[in-house]
Design brief:
This protein is an alpha/beta fold and 401 residues long. The chain folds into two domains: 205 residues, Rossmann fold (3-Layer(aba) Sandwich), CATH 3.40.50.300; 181 residues, Rossmann fold (3-Layer(aba) Sandwich). Helices cover 42% and strands 15% of the residues. The strands form two sheets. A seven-stranded parallel sheet has the order 3-4-2-5-6-1-7, sandwiched between helices. α5 links the parallel β3 and β4. α3 crosses α4 and α15 crosses α16. The longest helix has 15 residues. The radius of gyration is 22 Å and the shape is globular. The protein binds adenosine monophosphate. The site of adenosine monophosphate has 15 residues, from α3.
Length: 401
């Protein structure tokens, strides 16, 4: 399968080639023809699968075809996504793929001054990417009209619900023209999501990709069994290896993220934290520095990290093992994207062994244990007595080095 065989126009193929995209990912080969055909779509896919291009490319092509709008720019496509980071990434993707189309795109999100956003909107844009709150705010103030929207995308719908945006989403949908094409994306499809989809799409075609398994298969996964108090030393030791140009480190708490950053900086390792307590500007700065590789280590909590898309991110380090197994899959999905290689390194303390077991069950795979390292686990007391039997076996494994 090639992009040419999907009938993508030359100006878009040119930018895809410049990005190094040789062939469409599965979600792209499935979704692009359906969207180009003008049909509604329900896509079950998460970030990391090439989902953004799966909707951005055909939207650019469809909007580019309609010449009647070219003189006076009105928002004709709206993409609503739950987080600022995702919104920024989607806008960047539209700009990249649409670089030779003459179409314009902008992004609005909360937590920052609205004036630069409204200044761009005043000049008119073809495509708007938005988080729900700021979008509604600017609609109320009269800066945004949805009356000319021909293609609407609701991205990460499950996350939208998790974050409590359901009422905002409903208000946005109510403001859309009745006649439109709608694309609905969600990583999971529980009943309430299907119900929500039913209020947005008409006669949709359903497209599904199974990213978790494929992402997981592409990533080398290793685990160090280590006492909690030695995790800092292990992390700095690992980072002494210059092969690790950048690493995304996950902690369970915001406080934990800040502590790790402080520790790394003391050791002369450039690092920044990204989490919900950081101001939007600080988060953006941290992310840009990391993308530009001026910051070597980005320490993140799960909420802040979901959706972070860094090209060529090779290392994800789980400073703490997540207690929800799916979170592990999301975390390591930051690396090994769209066919690239990646390594996920996990630090497992005694009281985290059960979490690790659950993860191995979910991914149907044993994570390779690194033996003979400098900080073997000695603290067996922290293992929870209830799970004693299982932990005991695992600890023995962890100590066999
Ligand atoms: P997404 O799922 O949209 O967040 O995309 C995940 C990553 O895959 C991004 O870094 C994209 O740049 C990259 N990507 C998307 N489509 C392709 C493709 N056809 N070939 C190679 N990389 C791609």
């Amino acid at each position: 399968m090639t992009f040419e065989s999907l009938d993508i126009i030359e100006s878009i193929i040119k930018s895809l080639k410049e990005e190094g995209y040789e062939k469409p990912t599965p979600i792209q080969s499935e979704a692009i023809p359906i969207i180009l055909d003008g049909k509604d779509l329900i896509g079950c896919a998460q970030t990391g699968t090439g989902k953004t291009a799966a909707f951005a490319v055909p939207i650019l092509q469809l909007l580019g075809k309609d010449k009647s709008f070219s003189s006076r720019k009105k928002i004709r496509s709206l993409i609503v996504t739950p987080t600022r980071e995702l919104a920024i990434q989607i806008e960047e993707s539209f700009k990249t793929y649409g670089r030779y189309t003459g179409l314009t795109c902008t992004v609005v999100f909360g937590g920052v001054n609205q004036n630069p956003q409204t200044a761009i909107l005043r000049n008119g844009v073809d495509i708007l990417v938005a988080t729900p709150g700021r979008l509604l705010d600017l609609m109320t103030q009269g800066f945004i009209s949805l009356s000319q929207i021909s293609i609407f995308v609701l991205d990460e719908a499950d996350r939208m619900l998790d974050m409590g945006f359901i009422h905002d989403v409903k208000r946005i949908i109510a403001a859309l023209p009745h006649k439109r094409q709608s694309l609905f994306f969600s990583a999971t499809m529980p009943p309430e999501i299907i119900k929500l989809a039913g209020t947005i799409v008409t006669k949709p075609v359903r497209v599904e990709v199974t990213p978790s398994a494929s992402t997981v298969d592409l990533v080398d996964q290793i685990v160090y069994f280590v006492d909690k108090e030695n995790k800092n030393a292990l992390l700095t030791d690992l980072l002494a290896d210059e092969k690790i140009k950048t690493a995304l480190v996950f902690t369970r708490t915001k406080y934990g993220a800040d502590k790790v950053v402080k520790m790394l900086r003391k050791k002369g390792i450039s690092s920044e934290a990204i989490h919900g307590d950081k101001a939007q500007n600080a988060r953006q700065r941290a992310l840009s520095g990391f993308k530009a590789q001026t910051t070597r280590v980005l320490v993140a909590t799960d909420i802040a990290a979901r959706g972070i898309d860094v090209d060529e991110l090779e290392y994800v380090i789980n400073y703490e093992i997540p207690n929800i197994s799916e979170t592990y899959v999301h975390r390591i999905g930051r690396t090994g994207r769209a066919g690239a290689n990646g390594t996920a390194i996990s630090f497992c303390a005694a009281d985290e062994i059960d979490y690790l077991k659950d993860i191995e069950k979910l991914i149907s795979k044993k994570i390779q244990i690194i033996k003979n390292h400098q900080y073997p686990m000695t603290d067996l007391s922290a293992a929870k007595p209830v799970q004693g039997k299982r932990n005991h076996n695992q600890q023995k494994k962890g100590n066999r080095r």
